[in-house]
Protein backbone atom coordinates (compact mmCIF):
# COMPACT_ATOMS: atom_id res chain seq x y z
CA UNK A 1 0.00 0.00 0.00
CA UNK A 2 2.23 2.81 -1.29
CA UNK A 3 2.00 6.38 0.04
CA UNK A 4 -0.98 5.75 2.30
CA UNK A 5 -0.92 7.15 5.80
CA UNK A 6 -3.68 6.71 8.38
CA UNK A 7 -3.94 9.55 10.86
CA UNK A 8 -6.46 11.13 13.19
CA UNK A 9 -9.00 13.56 11.76
CA UNK A 10 -8.11 17.26 11.75
CA UNK A 11 -10.53 20.18 11.50
CA UNK A 12 -9.40 21.08 7.94
CA UNK A 13 -10.51 17.59 6.72
CA UNK A 14 -14.16 18.41 7.43
CA UNK A 15 -15.39 19.22 3.91
CA UNK A 16 -13.54 16.32 2.23
CA UNK A 17 -14.86 13.89 4.85
CA UNK A 18 -18.45 15.06 4.25
CA UNK A 19 -17.98 14.82 0.48
CA UNK A 20 -16.53 11.28 0.74
CA UNK A 21 -19.41 10.19 2.95
CA UNK A 22 -22.06 11.71 0.64
CA UNK A 23 -20.59 10.30 -2.56
CA UNK A 24 -20.08 6.86 -0.95
CA UNK A 25 -23.73 6.77 0.12
CA UNK A 26 -25.03 7.98 -3.24
CA UNK A 27 -23.17 5.14 -4.97
CA UNK A 28 -25.80 2.79 -3.59
CA UNK A 29 -28.70 4.50 -5.42
CA UNK A 30 -28.56 2.39 -8.63
CA UNK A 31 -28.34 -0.92 -6.73
CA UNK A 32 -31.20 0.16 -4.46
CA UNK A 33 -33.34 0.89 -7.54
CA UNK A 34 -32.54 -2.54 -8.97
CA UNK A 35 -33.43 -4.08 -5.60
CA UNK A 36 -36.86 -2.40 -5.70
CA UNK A 37 -37.45 -3.57 -9.28
CA UNK A 38 -36.71 -7.16 -8.22
CA UNK A 39 -39.40 -7.12 -5.52
CA UNK A 40 -42.44 -9.26 -6.53
CA UNK A 41 -44.76 -6.55 -5.16
CA UNK A 42 -43.22 -3.92 -7.47
CA UNK A 43 -43.39 -6.21 -10.50
CA UNK A 44 -47.01 -7.12 -9.76
CA UNK A 45 -48.01 -3.47 -9.28
CA UNK A 46 -46.35 -2.41 -12.56
CA UNK A 47 -47.89 -5.35 -14.43
CA UNK A 48 -51.41 -4.72 -13.06
CA UNK A 49 -51.15 -0.98 -13.90
CA UNK A 50 -49.92 -1.79 -17.41
CA UNK A 51 -52.64 -4.40 -18.08
CA UNK A 52 -55.45 -2.29 -16.60
CA UNK A 53 -54.52 0.74 -18.70
CA UNK A 54 -53.99 -1.18 -21.93
CA UNK A 55 -57.40 -2.84 -21.55
CA UNK A 56 -59.29 0.30 -20.58
CA UNK A 57 -57.64 2.75 -22.99
CA UNK A 58 -56.91 0.45 -25.97
CA UNK A 59 -53.72 2.46 -26.29
CA UNK A 60 -50.14 1.29 -25.89
CA UNK A 61 -48.72 4.74 -25.23
CA UNK A 62 -50.71 5.48 -22.06
CA UNK A 63 -49.65 2.36 -20.09
CA UNK A 64 -46.01 2.80 -21.18
CA UNK A 65 -46.15 6.42 -20.01
CA UNK A 66 -47.80 5.46 -16.72
CA UNK A 67 -45.23 2.74 -15.97
CA UNK A 68 -42.39 5.14 -16.83
CA UNK A 69 -43.84 7.73 -14.46
CA UNK A 70 -44.23 5.13 -11.72
CA UNK A 71 -40.61 4.07 -12.13
CA UNK A 72 -39.50 7.71 -11.96
CA UNK A 73 -41.59 8.07 -8.77
CA UNK A 74 -39.97 5.00 -7.21
CA UNK A 75 -36.51 6.37 -8.05
CA UNK A 76 -37.40 9.71 -6.45
CA UNK A 77 -38.55 7.93 -3.29
CA UNK A 78 -35.22 6.10 -3.08
CA UNK A 79 -33.31 9.37 -3.62
CA UNK A 80 -35.46 10.95 -0.87
CA UNK A 81 -34.76 8.05 1.53
CA UNK A 82 -30.99 8.35 0.96
CA UNK A 83 -31.05 12.16 1.22
CA UNK A 84 -32.89 11.94 4.53
CA UNK A 85 -30.17 9.66 5.92
CA UNK A 86 -27.32 11.77 4.48
CA UNK A 87 -28.81 15.04 5.81
CA UNK A 88 -29.40 13.54 9.27
CA UNK A 89 -25.78 12.29 9.41
CA UNK A 90 -24.37 15.63 8.24
CA UNK A 91 -26.42 17.42 10.92
CA UNK A 92 -25.54 14.95 13.66
CA UNK A 93 -22.13 13.29 14.11
CA UNK A 94 -20.54 14.75 10.94
CA UNK A 95 -21.55 18.30 11.83
CA UNK A 96 -18.84 18.54 14.47
CA UNK A 97 -16.56 15.53 14.06
CA UNK A 98 -14.06 16.72 16.69
CA UNK A 99 -16.76 17.06 19.32
CA UNK A 100 -18.48 13.74 18.47
CA UNK A 101 -15.43 11.55 18.01
CA UNK A 102 -12.28 13.20 19.37
CA UNK A 103 -13.37 14.86 22.59
CA UNK A 104 -15.05 11.80 24.08
CA UNK A 105 -13.64 8.63 25.57
CA UNK A 106 -13.52 5.45 23.50
CA UNK A 107 -14.25 7.26 20.22
CA UNK A 108 -12.06 8.27 17.32
CA UNK A 109 -12.16 9.39 13.68
CA UNK A 110 -9.35 8.58 11.23
CA UNK A 111 -8.62 9.52 7.66
CA UNK A 112 -6.42 7.77 5.08
CA UNK A 113 -4.15 10.20 3.28
CA UNK A 114 -2.47 9.65 -0.09
CA UNK A 115 0.00 12.26 -1.34
CA UNK A 116 -1.49 14.84 1.02
CA UNK A 117 -5.11 14.14 -0.05
CA UNK A 118 -7.76 12.57 2.17
CA UNK A 119 -8.96 9.46 0.30
CA UNK A 120 -10.63 7.39 3.02
CA UNK A 121 -12.44 7.69 6.34
CA UNK A 122 -13.52 5.56 9.29
CA UNK A 123 -14.75 6.23 12.81
CA UNK A 124 -15.83 4.40 15.92
CA UNK A 125 -17.70 5.12 19.12
CA UNK A 126 -19.63 3.16 21.77
CA UNK A 127 -22.65 1.58 20.05
CA UNK A 128 -25.89 3.37 20.89
CA UNK A 129 -27.90 0.27 21.81
CA UNK A 130 -24.97 -1.93 22.88
CA UNK A 131 -22.49 0.34 24.71
CA UNK A 132 -20.41 -2.68 25.71
CA UNK A 133 -19.14 -2.74 22.08
CA UNK A 134 -17.60 -0.11 19.84
CA UNK A 135 -19.38 0.59 16.56
CA UNK A 136 -17.45 1.11 13.32
CA UNK A 137 -18.97 3.93 11.27
CA UNK A 138 -18.34 6.17 8.27
CA UNK A 139 -16.20 3.74 6.27
CA UNK A 140 -15.61 5.21 2.82
CA UNK A 141 -12.78 5.15 0.27
CA UNK A 142 -12.54 7.41 -2.77
CA UNK A 143 -13.33 5.48 -5.97
CA UNK A 144 -9.96 6.30 -7.55
CA UNK A 145 -8.18 4.67 -4.57
CA UNK A 146 -10.22 1.47 -4.22
CA UNK A 147 -8.77 -2.03 -4.33
CA UNK A 148 -5.47 -0.95 -2.74
CA UNK A 149 -6.22 -2.27 0.75
CA UNK A 150 -7.08 1.13 2.26
CA UNK A 151 -10.39 -0.08 3.75
CA UNK A 152 -8.65 -3.13 5.20
CA UNK A 153 -6.13 -0.85 6.95
CA UNK A 154 -8.94 1.35 8.24
CA UNK A 155 -10.70 -1.79 9.58
CA UNK A 156 -7.50 -2.86 11.35
CA UNK A 157 -7.11 0.62 12.86
CA UNK A 158 -10.59 0.35 14.40
CA UNK A 159 -9.96 -3.20 15.67
CA UNK A 160 -6.63 -2.17 17.30
CA UNK A 161 -8.24 0.88 18.93
CA UNK A 162 -11.14 -1.24 20.21
CA UNK A 163 -8.77 -3.83 21.66
CA UNK A 164 -6.56 -1.16 23.30
CA UNK A 165 -9.67 0.51 24.77
CA UNK A 166 -10.60 -2.79 26.42
CA UNK A 167 -13.77 -3.56 24.44
CA UNK A 168 -14.45 -7.18 23.46
CA UNK A 169 -15.93 -6.59 20.00
CA UNK A 170 -16.60 -4.20 17.12
CA UNK A 171 -20.07 -4.06 15.62
CA UNK A 172 -21.32 -2.27 12.53
CA UNK A 173 -24.38 -1.88 10.37
CA UNK A 174 -24.37 -1.87 6.61
CA UNK A 175 -27.15 -1.98 4.05
CA UNK A 176 -28.11 -5.00 1.98
CA UNK A 177 -27.09 -3.19 -1.22
CA UNK A 178 -23.55 -2.33 -0.01
CA UNK A 179 -22.11 -5.56 -1.40
CA UNK A 180 -18.47 -4.35 -1.60
CA UNK A 181 -18.65 -3.39 2.07
CA UNK A 182 -20.14 -6.79 2.99
CA UNK A 183 -17.27 -8.55 1.19
CA UNK A 184 -14.76 -6.31 2.95
CA UNK A 185 -16.15 -6.98 6.44
CA UNK A 186 -16.47 -10.73 5.86
CA UNK A 187 -12.90 -10.76 4.54
CA UNK A 188 -11.79 -9.03 7.76
CA UNK A 189 -13.41 -11.71 9.93
CA UNK A 190 -16.71 -9.99 10.79
CA UNK A 191 -19.65 -12.36 11.33
CA UNK A 192 -23.17 -11.58 10.16
CA UNK A 193 -25.36 -11.39 13.30
CA UNK A 194 -28.80 -10.41 11.98
CA UNK A 195 -30.63 -8.71 9.14
CA UNK A 196 -33.58 -6.42 9.84
CA UNK A 197 -35.76 -3.90 7.98
CA UNK A 198 -35.14 -0.17 8.40
CA UNK A 199 -38.01 1.06 10.60
CA UNK A 200 -39.39 3.49 8.03
CA UNK A 201 -42.59 3.17 6.03
CA UNK A 202 -41.11 3.27 2.50
CA UNK A 203 -38.09 1.13 3.48
CA UNK A 204 -40.44 -1.49 4.88
CA UNK A 205 -42.55 -1.53 1.71
CA UNK A 206 -39.51 -2.07 -0.49
CA UNK A 207 -38.03 -4.63 1.93
CA UNK A 208 -34.83 -2.60 2.44
CA UNK A 209 -32.79 -4.21 5.20
CA UNK A 210 -29.70 -3.51 7.29
CA UNK A 211 -27.14 -6.15 8.27
CA UNK A 212 -25.46 -6.18 11.67
CA UNK A 213 -21.88 -7.51 11.67
CA UNK A 214 -19.66 -8.28 14.66
CA UNK A 215 -15.93 -8.85 15.03
CA UNK A 216 -15.18 -10.71 18.28
CA UNK A 217 -11.72 -9.65 19.41
CA UNK A 218 -11.53 -12.18 22.23
CA UNK A 219 -11.91 -15.03 19.73
CA UNK A 220 -8.92 -13.67 17.80
CA UNK A 221 -6.49 -13.97 20.74
C1 LIG B 1 -16.40 -0.81 0.71
C2 LIG B 1 -15.19 0.06 0.46
C3 LIG B 1 -14.91 0.90 1.72
C4 LIG B 1 -13.96 -0.83 0.14
O1 LIG B 1 -12.80 0.01 0.01
P1 LIG B 1 -11.42 -0.50 -0.66
O2 LIG B 1 -10.32 0.39 -0.17
O3 LIG B 1 -11.57 -0.64 -2.12
O4 LIG B 1 -11.26 -1.95 -0.02
P2 LIG B 1 -9.89 -2.77 0.06
O5 LIG B 1 -9.02 -2.48 -1.14
O6 LIG B 1 -9.25 -2.57 1.40
O7 LIG B 1 -10.42 -4.26 -0.06
C5 LIG B 1 -10.66 -5.01 1.05
C6 LIG B 1 -11.36 -6.32 0.72
O8 LIG B 1 -12.74 -6.06 0.51
C7 LIG B 1 -13.24 -6.89 -0.53
N1 LIG B 1 -13.68 -6.01 -1.61
C8 LIG B 1 -13.64 -4.66 -1.62
N2 LIG B 1 -14.16 -4.18 -2.78
C9 LIG B 1 -14.54 -5.27 -3.48
C10 LIG B 1 -15.15 -5.46 -4.75
N3 LIG B 1 -15.49 -4.43 -5.53
N4 LIG B 1 -15.40 -6.72 -5.16
C11 LIG B 1 -15.06 -7.78 -4.40
N5 LIG B 1 -14.48 -7.67 -3.18
C12 LIG B 1 -14.23 -6.42 -2.75
C13 LIG B 1 -12.11 -7.81 -0.93
O9 LIG B 1 -12.22 -8.96 -0.11
C14 LIG B 1 -10.88 -7.02 -0.55
O10 LIG B 1 -9.79 -7.80 -0.18
P3 LIG B 1 -8.78 -8.42 -1.29
O11 LIG B 1 -8.39 -7.29 -2.19
O12 LIG B 1 -7.64 -8.97 -0.46
O13 LIG B 1 -9.57 -9.49 -1.98
C15 LIG B 1 -15.42 1.01 -0.77
O14 LIG B 1 -15.89 0.23 -1.84
C16 LIG B 1 -16.39 2.16 -0.50
O15 LIG B 1 -16.00 3.22 0.00
N6 LIG B 1 -17.68 2.00 -0.89
C17 LIG B 1 -18.69 3.06 -0.79
C18 LIG B 1 -19.04 3.43 0.63
C19 LIG B 1 -19.52 2.24 1.41
O16 LIG B 1 -20.24 1.38 0.94
N7 LIG B 1 -19.13 2.23 2.69
C20 LIG B 1 -19.50 1.21 3.63
C21 LIG B 1 -20.68 1.67 4.40
S1 LIG B 1 -21.00 0.51 5.70
TrEMBL record:
<dbReference type="InterPro" id="IPR016181">
    <property type="entry name" value="Acyl_CoA_acyltransferase"/>
</dbReference>
<keyword id="KW-0808">Transferase</keyword>
<dbReference type="InterPro" id="IPR000182">
    <property type="entry name" value="GNAT_dom"/>
</dbReference>
<feature type="transmembrane region" description="Helical">
    <location>
        <begin position="44"/>
        <end position="72"/>
    </location>
</feature>
<dbReference type="GO" id="GO:0008080">
    <property type="term" value="F:N-acetyltransferase activity"/>
</dbReference>
<protein>
    <recommendedName>
        <fullName>N-acetyltransferase domain-containing protein</fullName>
    </recommendedName>
</protein>
<keyword id="KW-0812">Transmembrane</keyword>
<feature type="domain" description="N-acetyltransferase">
    <location>
        <begin position="69"/>
        <end position="218"/>
    </location>
</feature>
<dbReference type="InterPro" id="IPR050769">
    <property type="entry name" value="NAT_camello-type"/>
</dbReference>
<keyword id="KW-0472">Membrane</keyword>
<keyword id="KW-1133">Transmembrane helix</keyword>
<dbReference type="Pfam" id="PF00583">
    <property type="entry name" value="Acetyltransf_1"/>
</dbReference>
Amino acid sequence: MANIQIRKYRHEDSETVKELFTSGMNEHLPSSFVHVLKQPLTQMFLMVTFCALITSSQSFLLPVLAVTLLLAGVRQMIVYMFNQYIDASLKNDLNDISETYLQKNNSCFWVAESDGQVVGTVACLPAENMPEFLELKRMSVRRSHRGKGIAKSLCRTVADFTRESGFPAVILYTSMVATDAQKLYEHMGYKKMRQFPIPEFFAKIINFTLIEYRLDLEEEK
